[in-house]
Amino acid sequence: MLVLSRKTNEGIYVGDFLVTITEINDETVVMAVSKEGKTSVSYSKKKNESFSLTENSTIVVIEIRRTGNGPLKVRLGVEAPKETPVYRKEVLEAIRRNETALEESQDT
User: Fold this and answer.
1) What is the pLDDT of residue 90?
2) CATH number of the domain that 60 lies in?
3) Residue 96 parent element (H or E)
4) What is the extent of the structural domain holding 50?
5) Total domains, the chain
6) Kind and range of the H or E run holding 58
7) Residue 5 — very low, low, confident or very high, per pLDDT cuts 50/70/90?
């Protein structure tokens, strides 16, 4: 299981799905799941609750916590086959920007 910490408005890509944290309070996390930019479903989960993205991919809420006076964070566990790519949203977006810049520089 891969474990990632996320704050409100942060997300993770699991294969073609984007799971975005839309709200966190002391007991629940609300997540929007989208594919190709279209939100398909929203989940509200408590600690130790999970949902399936696909037959082989599951997201579980491991912990909801606050560090000091900072914002609430959620620790999500991702269970997916090894061949399914899992990225933090900002990392995949940076990779895509770099690939686009590389393609543009090769075209000139």
Assistant:
1) 95
2) 2.60.98
3) helix 89-107
4) 2-107
5) 1
6) strand 58-66
7) very high
